[in-house]
Design brief:
Layout lengths: L5 H25 L4 H5 L9 H37 L14 H6 L7 H7 L2
Helix pairs in contact: 1-3
């Protein structure tokens, strides 16, 4: 297997990291308070239950997106650390090189395709 172009993958990872940070900042600016603060549930008893349910659902979707973005940031940071350590592109299970096609699809991965099928993405 030929060596991986670490400069290119470092750029890809840093670009994706910057995108995710912006996404998280936006979500946190759009939803600074709790669901109760947004819907006024504790203070306004005349609010229609469907409005409160919609707000709760929307907030839960935002929380899920936020959790996913935070997880992706952790994976990206770990990949950047592997780049610094010189272990980027090496499967953490078998120690063989990860195919460049897989790194293109998931530049933060630390598993070759065979082990990704067993242990997850």
């Amino acid at each position: 297997m030929s060596p991986v172009d670490t400069d290119r993958f470092q750029s890809l990872l840093q670009e994706e990291r910057a995108r995710l940070v912006k996404e998280l900042e936006f979500l946190r600016e759009e939803n600074p308070g709790s669901v109760e603060e947004e819907t006024g549930e504790e203070t306004h008893f005349d609010q229609h239950p469907a409005d409160a349910a919609t707000a709760t659902h929307d907030r839960e979707v935002d929380y899920t997106i936020e959790e996913s973005a935070e997880d992706a940031l952790r994976r990206i940071d770990a990949a950047l650390a592997r780049l610094d350590a010189g272990t980027y592109g090496v499967c953490r299970v078998c120690g063989r090189g990860i195919g460049e096609e897989r790194l293109e699809a998931r530049p933060w991965t630390d598993l070759c395709i065979e082990h990704a099928r067993t242990f997850g993405p």
